[in-house]
Specification:
Layout lengths: L17 E8 L7 H10 L5 E7 L4 H7 L5 E5 L4 H13 L8 E6 L2 E2 L6 H8 L5 E7 L16 E2 L3 E5 H4 L2 H8 L7 H18 L4 E5 L9 H4 L1 H6 L5 E2 L7 H6 L4 H10 L4 H11 L2 H7 L3 E3 L15 E6 L6 H8 L6 E7 L2 H13 L4 E8 L6 H7 L13 E6 L8 H15 L3 H13 L3 E5 L18 H11 L18 E3 L5 H4 L19 H6 L2 H7 L3 E6 L1 H19 L6 H10 L8 H12 L4 H7 L8 H14 L1
Parallel strand pairs: 1-2, 1-4, 2-3, 6-9, 11-18, 12-13, 12-15, 13-14, 16-18
Antiparallel strand pairs: 4-8, 5-10, 6-7, 6-8, 15-17, 16-17
Helix pairs in contact: 12-22
């Protein structure tokens, strides 16, 4: 079809029939509830919903899809959603002519965060051939194409096409000649940035429901999600919650506010958090979705009319700390059961004496002598208290232990203990509000203090030697949640609030004390330290998200220290945080935290006397990008 032969109705027919083709991909073969919710909302706006599943589909997944769709196709996972759309169009075949509009979409968004209806009505009234929910501005440079740049295009996660276009020869030729796509880059270069220009050049007229230029952005779906929701956009892109946190920081994208905006419109954000917990690295999600809570007056206290069954499990090696641990536990606003584990009978008797002298609002209290102290609080929790953590017995468990960390010195060790206790069980009001979180969020799996950084060099290296062993164990346990790159999101210090159901994968494994090795095995790379880093990932696999929690007075101390450290480190390299990170990594520093890595990086940038030139290029008044280009050139010279 050429430009002069294009014909279209002045608007979408009032009684128009709409076909929705929705593509699903889940590496586990399931279907998350957010997909069901999105399709259920589309039901009233579509004459037919065809779901295409890339990869395998479990019987449970099919059972979820069938009530909200008219047909489900399962295909090999090749060619991404683009080839899934092609296969769906081929499957419908001549039957496509029965429809007035085809919506090609996928599972990369949450919705409806605002009603679909007003958007369909507004776009139906427009004299166009195809339209997108959002668009992407033209750019001179793009990470996928380098200097080639990208043209203006509709974003491919939602493109609606009218009869005037999908019955044309140009449409048939486009899909007939669609190239193979083995990488995500191919999907962008060979389809997303090609589709819109190809059909506009053929004379077809496109529209967009929410234009990025209105929001002062080249990509509003990623960089202005809260504003889009405020203007009635029914879709919230999932990428907002797994894109690089430093990049989103550069553009002041606050995922927490986007989730709150969705919730204000009636969207059940628990569906989004459950999906994200299973599919996003937990520390990335914690940053992108703003899942840290400074516990204060804006947090509702515990509601006694909806009681929770609470147990405190405390491993006490230093029995002289028993009164302090009980004092903290007694800040809980409910009568709680207490289970104490300890390595020997003598300690157990002293602990029982402490408990007897310090009455509190407790239910049952017991002291257990564990078979072995190998693995310390980790083995005592997962082996010695497996029965306590069994399904249905308690709603919330509070894990504590007598932490002294004497090897780090008195001041540092004392601060670490205080960082744990102050943020977990600060006082009665604080503890009440933390329990209130578990009442309001059924999907909340764990709550624990943020990463310790005062007194410890954890920033940038908190995996230490534990990541290889973690990867092996996670694979054995079927934990497919992506691992964080630099540091895991973990309850360092191994104290936390948790929903026992979120710990199921850890509890149901048949651990043995021998698995933990002897005293010499209690070190980085050993099982106990690996398990310290695992709860958020194990909970995420089951769809439970984690929150970090901090008391306001500790937040003041921690934030000012962190602010100053970041300021000092940032002074060494120009640019925004994401640019600094890229520059250092391109210079050879991969972030493992070893001195040897830093030395290699320094030697690379110092190669052939380039430091002076790099210092000049680092001047922010010079052309942006010169610094990184110079470092890359130096690295290439060295490799030759």
């Amino acid at each position: 079809m050429n430009a002069t032969s294009v014909s279209r109705a002045s608007a979408f027919p009032a009684a128009g029939r709409r076909l929705v083709v929705y593509v699903v991909y889940d590496r586990r073969g399931g279907v998350d509830e957010y997909v069901v919710h999105a399709l259920a909302g589309l039901r009233e706006h579509a004459a037919r919903i065809l779901v295409v599943v890339n990869g395998r589909l479990t019987p449970e997944g099919r059972a979820r899809l069938e009530p909200v769709s008219d047909e489900v196709l399962v295909r090999e996972n090749v060619g991404f959603d683009i080839w899934a759309h092609k296969e769906a169009l081929d499957h419908v075949g001549a039957g496509l002519s029965e429809f007035d509009e085809v919506v090609l979409t996928n599972d990369t968004w949450f919705g409806p965060v605002r009603p679909y209806g007003p958007v369909f009505e507004r776009m139906d009234a427009q004299d166009i051939d195809f339209w997108g929910m959002t668009d992407h501005a033209a750019e001179e440079w793009h990470p996928f194409t380098g200097s080639a740049g990208v043209p203006y295009h509709l974003q491919s996660f939602w493109i609606a096409v009218r009869r005037s276009m999908f019955t044309s020869e140009r449409w048939a030729r486009y899909w007939r000649d669609l190239p193979e796509m083995s990488e995500y880059r191919d999907a962008v270069l060979a389809h997303e940035i090609v589709f819109t220009p190809a059909f506009r050049e053929a004379g077809f007229v496109c529209g967009v429901a929410f234009a990025s230029e209105v929001y002062g952005s080249g990509n509003a779906s990623l960089l202005a999600p809260e504003a889009l929701i405020g203007d009635g956009c029914p879709t919230l892109k999932r990428r907002v919650f797994f894109h690089s946190p430093p990049f989103l920081d550069r553009h002041a994208v606050i995922g927490r506010w986007a989730l709150e905006a969705a919730a204000e419109g009636g969207y059940p954000t628990a569906l989004a958090l459950s999906n994200l917990a299973r599919n996003v690295a937990p520390k990335v999600l914690n940053a992108d979705a703003g899942l840290m809570d400074v516990i204060g007056p804006d947090h509702a206290p515990y509601d006694p009319t909806a009681p929770l069954r609470v147990v405190v499990i405390a491993h006490i090696f230093y029995d002289e700390m028993t009164p302090e641990i009980l004092e903290r536990a007694d800040t809980l606003p409910v009568p709680y059961d207490l289970v104490v584990t300890t390595p020997d009978a003598e300690r157990a008797e002293r602990i029982r004496s402490h408990i007897a002298r310090l009455p509190g609002e407790r239910g049952e209290a017991s002291v257990r002598v564990v078979e072995s102290n190998d693995g310390r609080d980790q083995s005592a929790f997962l082996i010695g208290c497996r029965d306590v953590l069994s399904p249905g017995r308690y709603d919330v468990v509070v894990k504590l232990h007598s932490k002294k960390t004497p090897q780090d010195g008195y001041n540092v060790g004392t601060h670490f203990r205080e960082q744990q206790f102050l943020n977990l069980l600060h006082d009665r009001e604080h503890s009440s509000r933390v329990l209130g979180l578990f009442q309001r969020e059924e999907g909340l799996g764990l709550a624990f203090p943020p990463m310790i950084h005062i007194g410890y060099p954890t920033l940038g290296r908190a995996w230490w030697a534990n990541k290889p062993g973690f990867e092996r164990l996670a694979d054995e346990m079927g934990i497919r949640v992506p691992l964080d790159d630099v540091s895991p999101l973990a309850p360092y210090g191994s104290m936390f609030f948790a929903r026992p159901a979120a710990l199921r994968l850890l509890v149901e494994r048949d651990w043995r004390y021998a698995d933990f090795g002897g005293r010499e095995a209690y070190k980085d790379g050993g099982l106990a330290h690996i398990l310290e880093r695992m709860p958020s990932y194990a909970a995420g696999e089951l769809g439970f998200h984690s929150r970090t929690i901090v008391a306001p007075d500790y937040a003041a101390v921690s934030h000012t220290a962190l602010d100053f450290k970041l300021d000092e480190m940032s002074a060494t390299i120009p640019g925004y945080a994401h640019e600094k990170i890229d520059r250092l990594r391109d210079a050879g520093f991969v972030g493992t935290g070893s001195g040897a890595d830093f030395l290699r990086m320094y030697m690379r940038v110092n190669h052939m006397g380039t430091v002076h030139r790099l210092r000049r290029l680092m001047d922010p008044s010079r052309r942006p990008g010169r610094w990184i280009q110079a470092v890359v050139r130096v690295g290439r010279r060295k490799r030759r």
